[in-house]
Amino acid sequence: MSNTIAIPQSMLPEDGRFGSGPSKIRGEQVDALAAGATTLLGTSHRQTPVRQVVASIREGLASFFRLPEGYEIALGNGGASAFWDMACASLIARRAAFGTYGSFSAKFAASAASAPFLESPVIFEGDPGTYRLPEYVDGVDAYCWAHNETSTGVAAPVRRVAGSLGQGALTLVDGTSAAGALPVDVSQTDAYYFSPQKAFGSDGGLWVAVLSPAAIERAASVEQGAKLDGARRWVPPFLSLTSAVANSRKDQTLNTPAVATLIMLENQVRWLNDNGGLDWASARCARSASILYDWAERSAYANPFVTDPGARSHSVVTIDLDDAIDANRVVSALRDNGIVDTSGYRKLGRNQLRIGVFPSVEPSDVTALTQCVDYVVERLGD
């Protein structure tokens, strides 16, 4: 006898993808790939057709984030994890301070701690489910944290540390699971960087950064002239932010990119801007997130993991389930019915669901998801 719980077709969401990254890719993005099959895919990224795609991405993101004067959009290969190493190589002069409150915010701090040419970072650590911003420290030249902690569903403020401008320090904010979904004033940062496999609905392997003039000047200083202890720092070409900026200004990347990723990203940026830009996208994500949080607070067996409503993410929602309900069984039953990628972050180890509600996700599908979870939980003991 089958143990599969069959959810009625009428209850299912139109699209069952709720991943926190990789996330849902819209059909129109796939259509854009097909349209570019003979004119873009398999062609040189240094020739006009692909460079026009990159130019559109840079112009579209400049509009989307309302770039302050002098700020630039740069991009390169490797994803946000590569940008952490790039920041260690090109943006942190001597010492950084980090706010860490989950797996991903801690990884950048770990990269800085392992860099032999940097002093030990100052770590301000918060418990999972909360956030902790770095505080002013003498001698620090970069303050770093994540706008959204993907592993826990916590959103943190984006604002410069008091006094940091006076000490000439940079503000470096990881926007990977926030960019395109949460409101942000990029003037409060010097590098707001992200990968496109979240709100921008593309594939990974690419990083994008909103850079201030101060960040670009810092990279040039570190790479081209600054000496520490009498020795010039070796910056591998792949990790040179100066090189990435120079190539971005030509609407290309230093190394060969995945052209398919660029095509899908360009289509998503145009779609977001056509619908109203960041204001529209963040409002849409807030609506979807509120559906989940409200449902969990009404539920007899579910609760939002993040207890502070002001810290709850509107892009990645984490919901704890009662210990009597095995989240793994719920996730498995949902997957059997075509609803995928709802499991909690593995290293967090909680009995919970984690739901990506990026702009491509229809709020009506989020409502359907809550109804499907209720349906599954009611029948788990049958």
From TrEMBL:
Give the UniProt record's GO annotations in the biological process aspect: glycine biosynthetic process, by transamination of glyoxylate; L-serine biosynthetic process; pyridoxine biosynthetic process
Q: Hey, which pathway is this one from? A: Amino-acid biosynthesis; L-serine biosynthesis; L-serine from 3-phospho-D-glycerate: step 2/3
Q: Which InterPro entries match?
A: Aminotrans_V_dom (IPR000192), Pser_aminoTfrase (IPR022278), Pser_aminoTfrase_mycobac (IPR006272), PyrdxlP-dep_Trfase (IPR015424), PyrdxlP-dep_Trfase_major (IPR015421), PyrdxlP-dep_Trfase_small (IPR015422)
Q: What GO molecular function terms would the record report?
A: alanine-glyoxylate transaminase activity; L-serine-pyruvate transaminase activity; O-phospho-L-serine:2-oxoglutarate aminotransferase activity
Required co-factor(s) are:
pyridoxal 5'-phosphate
Domain (Aminotransferase class V) spans: 142-344
EC number, as in UniProt? 2.6.1.52
A Pfam family = Aminotran_5
Q: Which reaction does it catalyse?
A: O-phospho-L-serine + 2-oxoglutarate = 3-phosphooxypyruvate + L-glutamate; 4-(phosphooxy)-L-threonine + 2-oxoglutarate = (R)-3-hydroxy-2-oxo-4-phosphooxybutanoate + L-glutamate
Q: Which UniProt keywords apply?
A: Amino-acid biosynthesis, Aminotransferase, Cytoplasm, Pyridoxal phosphate, Pyridoxine biosynthesis, Serine biosynthesis, Transferase
Similarity comment text for this entry = Belongs to the class-V pyridoxal-phosphate-dependent aminotransferase family. SerC subfamily.
Q: What does this protein do?
A: Catalyzes the reversible conversion of 3-phosphohydroxypyruvate to phosphoserine and of 3-hydroxy-2-oxo-4-phosphonooxybutanoate to phosphohydroxythreonine.
User: What is the protein named?
Assistant: phosphoserine transaminase
